Amino acid sequence: MISISQVTKSYRGAPRPALDNVSIEIDKGEFVFLVGASGSGKSSLMRMVLREDLPTAGSIHVLGENLVGIPNRRVPHFRRNLGVVFQDFRLLPNKTAAQNVAFSLEVIGKSRGFITEAVPEVLRLVGLEEKANSLPSELSGGEQQRVALARAIVNKPAILLADEPTGNLDPNTSEGIMDLLNRINLAGTTILMATHDRGIVDKYRKRVIELSQGKIVRDEQGSGYGNR
Amino acid sequence: MRASFVFTEMGIAIRRNLSMVISVILVTFISLTFVGTAGLLQQQIGSMKTYWYDKAQVAVYLCTATSPKDVCPQGESSKDVQKTVTSRLNSPTLKPYIDTFYFENHDQAYKTFQKEFKNNAVAKYVTPAQLNETFWVKLKDPNQAPIIIESFSGLSGIEQVKDQRSYLDQIFSMLNIASLAAISIATLMLFSAALLISTTIRLSAVMRRREIGIMRLVGASNFYIQLPFILEGVVAGVIGSLLAGGAIVAVVNYFVQGYLVQQLPFTSFVGLADAFALLPGLIAIGGLIAGIAAASSIRRYLRV
Ligand SMILES: Nc1ncnc2c1ncn2[C@@H]1O[C@H](COP(=O)(O)OP(=O)(O)OP(=O)(O)O)[C@@H](O)[C@H]1O
Ligand SMILES: [Mg+2]
After folding, report:
1. Do A79 and B219 touch (CB under 8 A)?
2. Does the predicted TM-score (pTM) go above 0.80?
3. Coil, strand, or helix at residue A14?
4. Which of A77, A114, B150, B193 has the fewest Cβ atoms within 10 angstroms?
5. What's the ipTM?
6. Residue A159 forms beta bridges with which residues?
7. Residues in chain B where the model's pLDDT stays below 70
8. Euclidean distance between CA atoms A53 and B124, whole angstroms
9. CA distance from start to end of chain A
């Protein structure tokens, strides 16, 4: 599903590579926590899985696509199979919850019929049917992240990338988001989640990959956050 | 669905960026008005050429008593000169080129002169004897004037052989210079319009960078991302061209047809049909330049 092989990423002007000879295999349906100190390369790795950036060396295959060789014009279609959420939600401030979700479908050319059905359904799934017509400024952080999650999964992606999705949320709210991610995972979506949240990683005991200074220092099933 | 979405997005973009869009419209409007003016001038030259070239004749001026002595040493030309010219014009060598010709004596020349310079002080002082007796020769093909000029120049008793088209060519070259000037200004202004459009579109893209970011994230195709911006430029460009077209039509209708035609009768001027014929070209130029400038600008913005 995701196959990262001997990937090195050096940013121009940086003294050491952000990723250093990293190899990871992630199978369909897995839920993987990516942990490590700030600057250890978690976001860099995620960006490459999304083909927002290319590795300096090594190869990445996602959903059967060779991301190093894929032509630029095929990238948009490739990305339709991936959902992404971020720490900062990235909602459009002048659109309601429902419009934010609908927007992501409109821009990939989905029919109006599909959109009017899919949007309320996914908002119900994330528990926001009541807030469909609220603007992001009228929603709490947790609610905004639910909207972002709804947007990420409305097109039923095979893979969900979550870069510190609970980074801005209090523990209780984070708990709710994690519940949701877990349900999405049980429905068959592969999840790769970068996090600093020790409590969550320790509680769910999934596969944990730990990065340190761009190197993998641990890759364990059913593990915890670690000592650092 | 797709179309309505693209147009809604374009509408939002234009509203957010209204003052820039208006300046694009104005610059396109002015530059294309210059383009249109140049086009009208060219059409004017064309129509005057067909009108006047057709009427233009070769004039064979006979010597008068007041002609310069170096070309007319023996003064007023004799009847023999008239006979020689007439027979040459009727000769088999020249006849095939000539449509018609007629002779104008001093009195007839005086009458024509008085008519043409009716309100001019010079009409009072001129006498019939000062005006050349003239053979007016109309050719089948006006381009063959040199044949006539060659066969009469240097003949004694003839002051000058003049192709009237040479007067017209001076006027036409002046009009040509004017239209060249209009085209040069238009080119400069179109260039600045293109720069303005690309700045406007980049600004529009910056204002909508969140949307663009999300579109890329969820896998919107590049074409879909770019289209509203390109359309924003094209719409502004086309509105500018329509205004320019309106200005051109108004100039032809009110100034040329409403004023010039009365001031200068006997001249054929460009009409509304000529102005309307320019419209598709103006719209195409405005739309194309705006589209190309917008597309290259948004591409460059998205690449980084
Ligand atoms: N676009 C970039 N240009 C240059 N250097 C970058 C860029 N993005 C990241 N880096 C560098 O690469 C290293 C890894 O950054 P990355 O964002 O992947 O870390 P991270 O593990 O996500 O950190 P955090 O937990 O704080 O989000 C850092 O040293 C960072 O400064
Ligand atoms: Mg990060």
Report:
1. yes
2. no
3. coil
4. B150
5. 0.88
6. A82, A190
7. 1-2, 119, 265-267, 304
8. 91
9. 30
